[in-house]
Design goal:
The complex is a heterodimer. Chain A is mainly alpha-helical. Chain A has helices spanning 2-26, 33-61, 78-109. In chain A, 27% of the residues are buried. By secondary structure, chain B is mainly α. Chain B has one domain. Chain B contains 4 helices and no strands. In chain B, helix 2 (14-32) runs antiparallel to helix 3 and helix 3 runs antiparallel to helix 4 (76-101). Chain B is elongated, with a radius of gyration of 25 Å. Classes of the chains: A mainly alpha, B mainly alpha. Chain A: Residues 112-128 have a biased composition (Pro residues).
């Protein structure tokens, strides 16, 4: 029971909390809203996948008598799919959060000051000078 | 006759180790972006990137420890406590990155009174 609680508290709940926080705070963010919100959604999905796998494993796989013989009584590839899916969702959320941070940098670089002044205009090149006495 | 080493556990844990490497690389990327960020985001991004890297290293170390667990004395309670730490550190890193991504810029100071703007206006006659 303590193992179950610690697993839920320390492995399943943190992605859900961080993803929800990212989703809520993304609405008031000055930049990178879409990336932060999508990263939060991906983290919430990763937390849901981890929670679902833990529930399935603890309540359906462990009581199975086949598990006592060292056989994981799940469909072949399901454990790998959960590992890959959870890892991909977490990595995708991390990438999107990184994109949100970098877009905030770009936003900050933009409106900080006036744009660079254009190049000083010198005398017009000879071929562009207005003609005054040419044939009409 | 040489004894063949069973590589099946190592091969089966390769995808998880690849994700750990990706996490470390992304944390390093976040750390590399810190000097270009504003001061209100710098601390959170630095802490987030550092914790993501630390969480990835701890996760990889824990997985390698589990791979070679039969070769060391079984300390199940110690392994249980160790297994709790990496996800928490990684979640702390994610939280730091969330705070860095959604931080609001510092409020600008009051506008200077007119006439004190630096730089001289060009003379209208020129």
């Amino acid at each position: 029971m303590i193992g179950l609680l610690s697993t839920f508290l320390f492995a399943c709940l943190p992605p859900l909390v961080v993803g929800s926080l990212a989703l809520v705070r993304s609405f008031g963010a000055p930049s990178g809203r879409g990336a932060a919100a999508a990263g939060g959604v991906l983290l919430i999905l990763a937390g849901l996948v981890a929670t679902g796998w833990q529930v399935y494993y603890r309540f359906f796989v462990l009581p199975d008598p086949f598990h006592a013989f060292g056989v994981l009584p799940v469909r072949p590839g399901l454990a790998e799919a959960v590992t890959l899916g959870g890892g991909a969702l977490g990595a995708g959320g991390l990438i999107l959060l990184l994109v949100a941070v970098l877009s905030a940098r770009r936003f900050q670089d933009g409106p900080q000051g006036p744009p660079a002044s254009p190049a000083p205009r010198g005398p017009l090149p000879p071929h562009a000078a207005p003609s005054t006495g040419g044939p009409r | 006759m040489t004894e063949m080493t069973d590589l099946t556990p190592l091969v089966s844990s390769l995808p998880a180790l690849l994700f750990v490497l990706a996490q470390i690389a992304l944390g390093v990327a976040a750390l590399a972006a810190v000097p270009r960020l504003g001061p209100e985001r710098r601390t959170a991004a630095l802490a987030g990137g550092g914790l993501v890297v630390a969480g990835g290293l701890l996760t990889g170390g824990f997985r390698l420890l589990l791979l070679f667990a039969p070769a060391i004395p079984a300390q199940t309670s110690l392994l249980g406590v160790l297994g709790v730490v990496p996800p928490l550190v990684f979640a702390g890193g994610l939280l730091g990155l969330v705070l860095a991504a959604t931080a609001k810029p510092a409020a600008p100071g009051p506008y200077p009174p007119p006439g004190t703007r630096p730089g001289a206006y060009p003379h209208p006659g020129r």
